[in-house]
Amino acid sequence: MAETRIDIAQESRLIALLLDRQQATKFRQQFLNFHVHEQALIFVELNLIQRQRLYRYLTSAKVAAIFNELDSADVTSAYFKEMAPKYAAAVISAMYTDNAVDMLETAAAADLSTYLKYIAPKKAATIRKLLHYQAKTAGAIMATEFIKLTGDQTAAAAMQLVKLQARQAEIIYYVYVVDQMDRLTGIVTLRDLLTAPGESSVAQLMTSPAVSVKVDDNQEDVARMISDYNFVALPVVDADEKLIGVITVDDAIDVIDEESAEDYSGLAGVDIDEQKDNPWQAAFKRLPWLITLLLLGMSTASLVAHYDQMVSEASILAVFISSITGTAGNAGTQSLAVAVRRLADPEADRRSLGKIILTEILTGMMIGLITGLAIMLIVGWWQQNIVLGFVIGLAMFCAIIVANLAGSLIPLLMDKIGVDLAVASGPFISTLSDLTSVLIYFNIAKIFLQFIISD
Amino acid sequence: MAETRIDIAQESRLIALLLDRQQATKFRQQFLNFHVHEQALIFVELNLIQRQRLYRYLTSAKVAAIFNELDSADVTSAYFKEMAPKYAAAVISAMYTDNAVDMLETAAAADLSTYLKYIAPKKAATIRKLLHYQAKTAGAIMATEFIKLTGDQTAAAAMQLVKLQARQAEIIYYVYVVDQMDRLTGIVTLRDLLTAPGESSVAQLMTSPAVSVKVDDNQEDVARMISDYNFVALPVVDADEKLIGVITVDDAIDVIDEESAEDYSGLAGVDIDEQKDNPWQAAFKRLPWLITLLLLGMSTASLVAHYDQMVSEASILAVFISSITGTAGNAGTQSLAVAVRRLADPEADRRSLGKIILTEILTGMMIGLITGLAIMLIVGWWQQNIVLGFVIGLAMFCAIIVANLAGSLIPLLMDKIGVDLAVASGPFISTLSDLTSVLIYFNIAKIFLQFIISD
Q: Where does this protein have coiled-coil stretches (chains A, B) (predicted)?
């Protein structure tokens, strides 16, 4: 950790103590000295009584600043319920609309109406509107505090506007240029305004057409775009090209982080952000997957049972089941991880689908060949049985090719048909590959059975 | 994909055509109309002859802007070798220092000396210095173009400085305040400068102490800090607290992305960013892991071979090897993924180590109990053998607890001793858990063997 960071646990205890003792002045001195992000970290460590004192000791604007910084895990309307409705409304008003909306999403309809009653009609209408955008779209994460003007204004007038709105706007580094219909026509950076002669027109200075996103675009695409283009903010337009919001880079980071956590979760068949739960909750979250896979795994077991007679005759066959299923499963997981990553960042790989699949088949053949040869030599030497070695090696070769194809094709197919099924997960691929591997193994073994036993 | 994005493949073909036909003017018209990030995407699609024409048709400043936008995968000094050394030096000079240094890292010492000869001594010295910072530290990703002044200046003077340096500075939204010794004492935002009265002193306006990082801090910690604090940039100081650079949010996103790709790679035992390689290269990258795991898996095989006699007597035991190893492996992978995520974002979980481990043991017991009971009932009913069911169930219970502990403890231990070993990977945990699962299974089976056979 960087050294300038404070010890949150220790500072939280101190702040809690000041609140317990009702030392309002000393609390304010200490607490407001922290960066607002640190204030948020301390805030979530407080208990109900301490929080209610904090609401009393701080202005609604200060509380709003803290709430703007809350981690997604801590974003909840429960905090508003602890306040007098009027104070809650003041906090909501002072927050950036996108953050306020995130928190209000969990509020009961009755509570929401009460808060909105105390909020200026225009802001209340914006909040209502933003609450209706679908989760995980640009609309759901955009802010509505931005600076806009028409192209016929001068650079000096634009600078004046920036100065006036600097306190309210979530982002002041871009000024958005719109036409009479409020349609986005261009973007001027603050850098341009600062260096341009005051009398030059905004239309001359602006970059046009502006790169923008649609309100119903997927949040991951939007975040990738901000990251790829190195933007600090990206404008959001509606179906009529009207400018209705901006998405800032800090929201983009959160989305990228959230989406990569989702991809991980997919790889491992578990919600990796479960951390805060107790063991029973954690177990019940993980169990459905495990039980499903166990049942799927029973088909592998019943397949082995089907070949029971053969295993009795040549119990040595049982020895290598786990080697073949294990290695094929590992190879399948590798190819799954590469495919999942490719889907997450399409720009990283601009090859055609056919070429990707061909590469994966060739990779699987290569891996299967070398791994198959390796195990053939090991088994042949260890068991002094070259036919057995050949059977194991050939089964490994085939099982790996199948596992690699499954690992790369399943996520691609899921993506094509547009569903986000958990079957594109490492454990699923491993379990599926167990089944195909055993099937391949015993069928090859059956052909050579008499040589294995007699050899 | 957002709709405003252009079709890079198509536009690249058009641009390539214009270069092939040597239509300089038309090329400039079309090409410079794209966003610089899009120019970079098109640039990497061109061939050597096309690129050399592009260098001739564009100023070094335009080429520098493109190079500033190159993806990490495309960052290479090879492009400089295609240019006349003097032109290369001009491009390097016009790039942001951090990006120039990234590209020069792959340059031969002789080439580097040649370029630096043509670069202004001060900039050349900075480049030399940055090239010496260790990879993956704050020093290696920081930029040196920032705006600084002393606290006794006025807001008006500061604004003047921002205007003067707006073109060169990589970031203009923060002005850094230093003392006579060049030590960082505070930060003033452009927002503050814009809204403050011109005569107010910078010392009054600044936030102090400033949140900063040390030059040798790990890049992942720095990136997390930028993301947590919602900074657009973060100052970097040396051991004497002297301000020497800034890290911008766009670099932080790249680092977060890169590090999460590394974590994925760890989970799956594969370099997930291998996409651009051909199948042979891909296979040879994946093989070392697979062969290592295969050899480790041979110990599982030899363990089964050790119990050969028992399997001959009760071949039904072979049927459930894959169910037990598979389920334990899946449970271990889940617990590994949760642990890896926890390590990547320490802020997400502020519980003590002991509590984390206790939770994981309890979770494992709970999962083991329910999964064990489930398979006991299934096997008991299917095979009409309740003792066999009990043996499988008990083995499953124990194997899952061990796998869960391994999945959560191994990454924690690796992190504690500070090494980044690939043993904290899903495939490794699965393969290790195969071994312990089989050991547990056969030892339990041995105790109940006579009942299984006679039942």
A: none
Pick among B323, B431, B435, B438 to test the A interface (most A CBs inside 10 A) = B323
**Contact between A337 and B2 using a beta-carbon 8 Å cutoff:** no
Task: Select from A72, A104, A133 the last residue of a domain.
Answer: A133
* Strand, helix or coil for residue B366: helix
Determine whether the interchain pair A322/B261 forms a contact, defined as Cβ–Cβ distance below 8 Å: no
- Tell how far CA A123 is from the center of its chain: 29
Answer positive or negative: Cα dihedral of A326, A328, A334, A337: negative
Say yes or no for a CB contact (<8 Å) between A264 and B264.
yes
ipTM: 0.78
Q: How far is A152 from chain B (nearest CA, A)?
A: 22
To the nearest whole number, what is the mean pLDDT of chain B? 87
- Please tell me the total count of domains within chain A: 3
Judgement on whether residues A124 and A173 belong to the same structural domain of the protein: no
Q: In chain A, whose CA is at the least distance from the CA of B321? A: A322
- B168 in any annotated domain: yes
For the residues B37-50, what does the mean pLDDT come to?
92
B66, B218, B253: which to substitute to probe chain A, counting the most A Cβ within 10 Å? B253
Bond into A209 cis (ω within 30): yes
Q: Name the residue among A20, A94, A26, A91 with its Cα closest to residue A55.
A: A91
How far apart are alpha carbons A433 and A402 in whole angstroms?
Answer: 8
pLDDT of residue B3: 37
Residue A372 touches partner B, C-beta closer than 8 Å:
no
Answer whether residue B338 shows pLDDT above 90: no
**In CATH, what number is assigned to the domain containing residue A99?**
1.25.60.10
In a domain, B407, yes or no: yes
A273 in contact with B, Cβ within 8 Å: yes
Confidence at residue A429, expressed as pLDDT on a 0 to 100 scale? 85
Judge contact between B376 and B305, C-beta under 8 A. no
By Cβ distance, the residue of A213, A330, A374 closest to B2 is A213
- Residue B288's CB is within 10 A of a number of other CB atoms, namely 11
Last residue of a domain, one of A258, A291, A322: A258
Averages of pLDDT over runs of 10 residues in chain A (455 residues) are 63 93 94 91 93 95 93 85 93 91 89 93 90 88 90 91 86 91 93 89 89 91 89 92 93 86 76 68 81 86 85 82 88 85 67 77 90 91 88 94 90 76 73 91 88 65
Question: What's the pLDDT band for B1 if we cut at 50, 70, 90?
Answer: very low
Let me know whether A329 and A385 are in one domain: yes
- One domain for residues A404 and A349: yes
β-sheet bridge partners, residue A248 = A233
Q: Please indicate, yes or no, whether residues B178 and B278 belong to a single structural domain of this protein.
A: no
B289 in A contact zone (CB under 8 Å): yes
Flag whether residue A311 sits within 8 Å of chain B, measured between CB atoms.
yes
Note whether B2 contacts A225, CB cutoff 8 Å.
Answer: yes
* Residue of B341, B360, B382 best to disrupt the A interface, most CBs of A under 10 A: B341
The pLDDT of residue B56 is above 60: yes
Closest CA to A325 of A446, A426, A432: A432
**Does residue B154 share a domain with residue B130?**
no
Residue that the structure tokens 């391994």 belong to: B406
Name the 3-class secondary structure at B259.
Answer: helix
Residues of B with Cβ-Cβ distance to A381 under 8 angstroms: none
Within the 109-138 window of chain A, which residues sit less than 8 Å (CB to CB) from chain B?
Answer: none
Within-domain flag for A267: no
Length of chain A: 455
Within a domain: A353: yes
Domain that holds residue B185: 147-257
CB atoms A337 and B267 under 8 Å: yes
User: Do B248 and B372 reside in the same domain of the chain?
Assistant: no
If asked whether residues A239 and A335 sit together in one domain, one would say: no
Which of A234, A260, A248, A262 shows the shortest CA–CA distance to A98?
A248
A321 Cβ under 8 Å from any chain B Cβ: yes
Does A22 share its domain with A154?
no
